[in-house]
Amino acid sequence: MKIGVLTSSRADFGIYQPLLYKIQADRYFELQIIAFGTHTSRFHGFTLEDIRKEGFETVYSLTTALANDNEAAIATSYALTAMKFADFWTDHVYDLVFCLGDRYEMCAAVQAGIPSEVKFAHLHGGETTLGAIDNIYRHQISLASKLHFTATDNYADRVKLLTGSTKGVYHVGSLSLDGIENLMLPDENKLRLDFSIPPGNYALVTFHPETVSPNRNERLAIEMYQGLKRLSKDINLVITMPNADTMGSLFRKKLEQLRAHRQGNVILVENFGKRNYFAAMKYCIFLLGNTSSGIIEAASFNRYAVNVGNRQKGRVRSKNVFDCEFTADAIYKTSIEAMVFPAFTGENRYYKKGAANRIIEVLKTLHPDDIY
Predict the structure, then answer these.
(1) Contact by Cβ (8 Å): 102, 137
(2) Which end of the chain has less Cβ packing within 10 Å, N or C?
(3) Through-space distance between the first and last CA atoms of the chain, rounded to whole angstroms
(4) How much is the mean pLDDT over the chain?
């Protein structure tokens, strides 16, 4: 079975990894990885090299990212991605192509495959993020896909409603958490040495723009800066940089300004990689920001997450998540509250053991009518 895997960013590649390793090791499959989006952007760390270092035999790359990130540039990048993939799908044929999540680049690649009748399998469909236009892209990807592997049973039900069919929908849990109980992570001393993290407790921080209201992002970036500036007096901040979202550069500039102001205890990281990121999560005191990892993954590391604003509004939550308004005062006060809580010991609603194995099992038992 010839499998293509679309990856547009460091984030989705990290989620895919448990499945990629199993597909690559199984002679039933022929695996080809298709990298585009920020993977080929040196501004975002040129993570294409990280994919190649993993030893996958066939890795195609398409350059689709633009330097600017305003609304017009995002639309242009979408069109460019669709144009590049119009040619790619003509020249490359697969039995099944995996796509993941809700990025605009992913949506463009999938939409370009519809006329060529590319058979897509969507991971993380059915989810809701009311504070991001990604919500629209995610549902478009689901509608273009034949198979659906969802992170919770609630999301499986939503995909069935969205597509009008119960066929080809499987609740497997979040793939990023597959094998987490046996995952070998760097020890804390090595992590701190490799990423210049100073001694003492730290919060793991990730902020992205709220793309539903891009005209609000200048104010939100200032609120983030002021909240983090105040918090940095109480705790070290290890901050992962934003993805290529609309107005993401506003947040980057404010984070760089914060580092310049608070040299020594504000660390900016362009790309941790999955193992280092999970290690940073394991050794931090709590997570802060508006990224999905605080909601999907933090509970598996017994960490609380302060979820800021509306970007993740609508996602299923475990009991480790504190929601707060996107204001400097709320960011600071809720973070101070989270710092004093003991380790979280509740369940993670996104975890289901054996996610990758379940996907492999489904692929090997598929009836042709399920995807054709």
Answers:
(1) yes
(2) C
(3) 14
(4) 91
